[in-house]
Fold these 3 entries.
Entry 1:
Amino acid sequence: MNPILVALDVDTADAAHALADQLRGAVGGFKIGKRLFTSYGPSIVERLVARGDRVFLDLKFHDIPNTVAGAVAAATRLGVWMVNVHASGGRAMMTAARDAADAEAAKLSRPAPLVIAVTVLTSLSEDAMVEVGVNGGIAAQVERLAALAQSAGLDGVVASPQEIGIIRARCGASFQVVTPGIRSASDDKGDQSRTLTAAQALSAGASYLVVGRPIIAAADPRAAAERIAAER
Ligand code: C5P
C-alpha cells in the first residue's frame, strides 16, 4: 500500500473532511490525533471509516491495563486501522491492549487494528529524560521500549527518522516502524529539526510515513502528496 499517512492536524471537522476528500486515493490513510478527537469525538473517525479510509487513531493511550484495554476495544469498534499506546505504560498494559484489539475484532469478525507503541516522545531531550529518571540515554531507552512492545505482541512503534535503524536492527523486518518528520529537500522544516525525505526514511526501514504540513499546508495538497509518493 501507499505508505503515506496524512496527519489531519487542522482545527475543524469540516477542514479535515475536505482534506480527506482531496487526498483519498493518493495516500495510504489519515492520522486523527487528540486535537480533532477531543473536539469532535468518534464521529470524525466514523465518517472517514465509512468512506473506506484507513484511520490511524493517534491518542497514545497510557493508563492502567484495564482502562487501556477498554479504550482499545472502543477504537476497534470504531473500525480504526491503527491505534497507539505509550510503551512506558509497561508490558501488562501493552498486552492488555493487544488482547483487547484481538478479542473485539474477533467478536466483530473483522481484522484487528495494528496496535503500535510510542517509545520516547521526540520532544524530550536527554536532560528532560534525566529529570524523569531515565539516565541511560534516549537511544537505549527507545531500543528497550521497542523490544518490550514487540515482546508484548504489538505490531510496531512510532519512531523518529534517526531511530529507525536501531529499531530495525533490534526488532527485525516484520515489525512496523511508523515515522514522522518527513520533508522534501525543498520543504520548510518548521519545528522538525532532524528530518529525512520519504525515500531516505523508507530505505532506512520505515514502514509508514506520517506527513502533515508538507501536504496539508500545500497550495495543492493532492499534488504535494503525489510528489512525495513519487519520491520514494
Ligand atoms: O506537519 P508534520 O509533517 O511535522 O506533522 C507530523 C505529525 O506527526 C504531527 O501530527 C506530529 O504531531 C506527529 N509526530 C511528530 N513527531 C513525533 C510523533 C508524532 O511529528 N515524534
Entry 2:
Amino acid sequence: MSVQSETKRLTAADLRVRKGAMPIVALTSYHAHTARLVDKHCDVILVGDSLGMVMHGLESTVPVTLDMMILQGHAVMRGSRRALVVVDLPFGSYEASKEQAFLSAARVMKETGCGAIKLEGGRRMAGTIAFLAERGVPVMAHIGLTPQSINVLGSFRAQGRDQADWAPIEEDARAVAAAGAFSVVIEAVAEPLAARITAEIPIPTIGIGASPACDGQILVLEDMLGLSPRVPKFVRRYADLGPSIETAVENYAVDVRSRVFPGPDNVYGMKSAKPGA
Ligand code: KIV
C-alpha cells in the first residue's frame, strides 16, 4: 500500500488548464532549503541548468550533466511538497534522438520523482516533444533565447526585436504546442511578440524577459535575491542579500578572531554528576 502525502502536488495537467487564468508563478531552485521557501508561494519550481553558472561558476550551461541535474532535482523534491517540480534536460542529453531524450527524461523522472522535464528548442524539437508526451513524459518547452545554443548564437541577445524575425519564433511556439508540450518558456523575446504568441497558442506561456501578458513568469531565484554578480535587464531584484551575507561573514570573522564567538550560549557545559555515580 502506498503512503500518500497530505499535500497534493500540482501536476502538468493542473498547469495546462491555467491558460488565460490566474498567472502561474515560477522560480528556480537547486537546493532543499530554498525549495522549501519557494514552495510556499510558487506553482512551479524549475531545477534549471542555470545551476551550472549559479552553483558551479561555469561560463554557460553547456557543461552541465544529467547527473548534476538529478542530484539537485532530488534535493528540490525533498524540500518541496506542493509545487510542480520541473527539471531541465541538459545540453547533450536529448538532442541526438527521440530515444536518447526518452531515456534521459525517464532517468530524471524515476531518480528525482519530479513531475515534468524542460528542454530547449522549437520546431527542431517538435518530434521529440511528441515522442515524450505520448510516452508519459510531460514536457515544458523553451523557445526564444535558448542558452544551451550559446556557441551558435555567440551572445545572450534578446530575440525578435525586428518584426522581420518574428515568423520563426512564432512557428516555434506553434510547433511545440501542437507537439503536446504542456507549457512553454519564452525567454528574452520582444514584448509585443511574446504577447502575440501568448494570445495565439493554446498552452500556457511562462515569460522570462518576455511580457506581462504571458500566462506566467519565471526568474532565477539568486538573480531576484541579489546574489548574482551580473543580471540581465529583465530581472527585478526583490532583495539585496549579497551585502547582508557579506556583512554577516565579516562579523563572524571578527568574532572568531577576537574569541567572542562561540559565546556561553553556543557551548555545552558538563552534565551535573549524578549522586552516587
Ligand atoms: O535554467 C534556467 O534557469 C532556465 C530559466 C532561466 C527559464 O531555463
Entry 3:
Amino acid sequence: MPPRHLADLDPEARRAAVKELGLPEFRAKQLSTHYFGRLVRDVAEMTDLPAAAREKIGAELLPHLLTPVRELACDDGATRKALWRLHDNALVESVLMGYPDRVTACVSSQAGCGMACPFCATGQAGLTRNLSTAEIVDQVVYLAGVAASGAVAGSPPRLSRVVFMGMGEPLANYPRVIAAVRRLTSPAPDGLGLSQRHITVSTVGLVPAMRKLADEDLSVTLALSLHAPDDDLRDELVPVNQRWKVAEVLDAAWSYAARTGRRVSIEYAMIRDVNDQPWRADLLGRLLAGKLAHVNLIPLNPTPGSRWDASPKPVEREFVRRLRAAGISTTVRDTRGQEIDGACGQLAASTVDGAEAR
Ligand code: SAH
C-alpha cells in the first residue's frame, strides 16, 4: 500500500495526525480546506502554512500518490484521459468527461482487475492491487481541478459526478471504495461535497458486497454489469456469474433499490451476434418488468485482439425498441474517448509502456 495521505483519513483522524506531528489541531481543517475545498494537492502551494510545517506535512500527510505519465484529450477536448504511475510503478487511468450540463469523472478503484470479463481490456491482465482510499480520491480531486481550470470547453467548471467505471471492480476493494465515497460526499472542507446520488458504483455483481452496500446508508447509484439475461451466456461474459447467478444478482439489485429508493442501472454491452438477439431483449424485458431499473446499453468498445465487435445500429435499435415495448426505461450510452482508448472497457494502463516505446 502507498504512504498515508490526508484523504485516507476522516476528520477526526486528521486532527489526531496533525497533533502527532506536533502541530495545532486547526491545521487539520486548514489542510482539508486547501485539498478538498480549493483542490490544491501540492503542499508547496499552501503558502499560509509555516515553511517548517509545510515540509513535515508534505512528507507525512500529502505525499505524491499519482505521478502523471501522460494525458490525452479527444472529442474536441470534452474527454480527457490521465495515465498515472503509483508509488510501486503500478499504472492506472482516469477519465474526465464534459457535457453541456455536467462534468463526470470516471475513476479506477484497482490497478488491473481480477474479474476476467473477456470483452474488457482491463480484465485481460488480471489484478495488480487494490488502490488506497486516497489514491482513489486524489484522482477525483485532480480531475475536479482540471474542470475548475476551465479546461473542459462548453461544460460547467464544477465536477458534479463520479462513476467507479474505470479500472477495477469497486466492490472487490470494498472498505477503501466506501471510505472514498464518504470523502467525496462529505460537505467541504471535510470532503468534496458531491451529492451521493451523483456517485455511481458499478459492479460485476458481487452479491454479498451489494447487500452490504445497501446497509451503508449511502444513496449512491448502483450499476450492475449484466450483459446477458441468461446464465449460459453470462457465465462466459462475466465469469463471476459462475458463483452468483443472474437471478441472485438481480435479487440483490432489487434489495438495493428497495432499501435506497434508487433506480438500479443495468449495464449491457451490445456485442454483435453474442448477446444482441431479439429473444434476449425480450427475456431481459421480462426480468426487469415492474422493477426499479434503467437499462444502459453500451456499444461494445473494441479491445485489442478481441474477436468481438459492436452490434450493428439496426440491431441495437431493435433491442431498444423491444425493451421499451416491455415498459423498461432504456438509453444507449454515448461512446466517449474511443480513440484515446479511454472508453468503457478500454483502460489497460499496463500496456502503455510498450506504446510509449513506439
Ligand atoms: N468492474 C466494474 C466497473 C468497471 S467497468 C464493472 O464491471 O461494472 C465499467 C463498465 O464498462 C462495465 O459495465 C463493463 O462491463 C463495461 N465494459 C467493459 N469492457 C467494455 C467494452 N469493451 N465495451 C463496452 N463496455 C465495456
